[in-house]
Amino acid sequence: MFRIRRAQSLSAPRASGLPRARRERAILATDLQDLPWWRRAGPALLAILVISLADFLSGRDRYLAPLMVVVPSIAALTLRPVELLLVCLFGLAALIGLSRYDQVSELHDGRFLFGAMASYTALTLFSAVLARLRMRRAAAFAAVSSVAEAAQRALLSHPGPSVGPLRLAVRYVSAADAARIGGDLYSVLETPHGTRVLVGDVRGKGLGAVQTAAVVLGAFREAAYDENGLYTVADRIEASVERHVPDGEFTTALFAEFRRPGAVELLHYGHVPPIQVSREGLVTVLEAADPWVPLGLGRLATGRPQSMDLPFGADDVLVLCTDGVVEARHHRSGEFYPLAERAGPLVRDAARSAAELESAVGRLFDDLLAHTGGELGDDALLLLITRTDRDRARL
């Protein structure tokens, strides 16, 4: 099995082609501005409270009010400039009140109060400038991330709920640890040679992964219409990868062709094997008898891969995924997600309707998140395929 790693995405700018509301939400989320102001102000207000209590409880012989200068720095991390000034004004009032309580001016130490207030005011103004710069950087970061997401969305061209004789349900999510671009890819095309499916996983991350995915998907969309067999389709993609992708980069891939009713042809290129689930929930892992190297490494192998012709009935569900699913670790034990064990009861009877299929992929994805504790460490693609009622009528 070839291990591959990828990245993630976020959202934001005008050039992205994303809805305006989504761009704005992305910018807010990047800078925590989607949280209520009182939650963002919480750390600074807590600092004011702690310093005030410490000064009050230590008695008048301890002057701790100058510690209030930490408040502007804390506020600059999460607050907008206007919000920061309001919170810091409250902190300044607390500083003056503590100074009176400690009788600083009465002890002819007014210079301490003046120095503390001057330092506090200067840090407040400087922190307001930093808060403004922070928000601009967050907006720029969200903009770049959304361009990446828009590029990936345009690249994938998500198919509709049905293509040819097939019904589809998809869950495609990116890992949540950074705003990067994912390397999972898939495409479903109705061609003169039958309905053809590609699921792939690019090694690498960022723009390099997008470039490789673009090469693979572009070659597949051309070859799928031109070539008569899956092997020649894959061979065309291999040639494109060798020409346009840097040495050492590769893409695991699984090809499927639905040309005849009641059957499916599979061709493996080092990818996660698909799972077939019957109406009764019986699971069959469709392992390749002779696994082949990923796309981009074909020059290292001799011979040619062999495809598999398998029965695929009207009540069966084909589950395709990437390694972000099967290598997702349990949030406590660290065990991999047991897709073959979980898919049966969660996916059975999903072939009855489009709504059932969509519900099934939702249950499977929710179970994956429950396994990981709600977060994914890698991109994950789940693609469920059944035959439509039109194809059932021919069986």
TrEMBL record:
For this protein, the record's InterPro entries field holds:
Bact_Sigma-Reg (IPR052016), PPM-type-like_dom_sf (IPR036457), PPM-type_phosphatase-like_dom (IPR001932)
Is the Transmembrane helix keyword given for this protein?
yes
Q: Which UniProt keywords apply?
A: Hydrolase, Membrane, Transmembrane, Transmembrane helix
Domain of life the protein comes from: Bacteria
Statement: the UniProt record of this protein carries the keyword Hydrolase = yes
Q: Which residues form the PPM-type phosphatase domain?
A: 166-387
- Looking at the UniProt entry, the stretches that span the membrane are 37-57, 84-101, 113-131
Q: What is this protein called?
A: PP2C family protein-serine/threonine phosphatase
Instruction: Say which species the protein is native to.
Output: Kitasatospora kazusensis
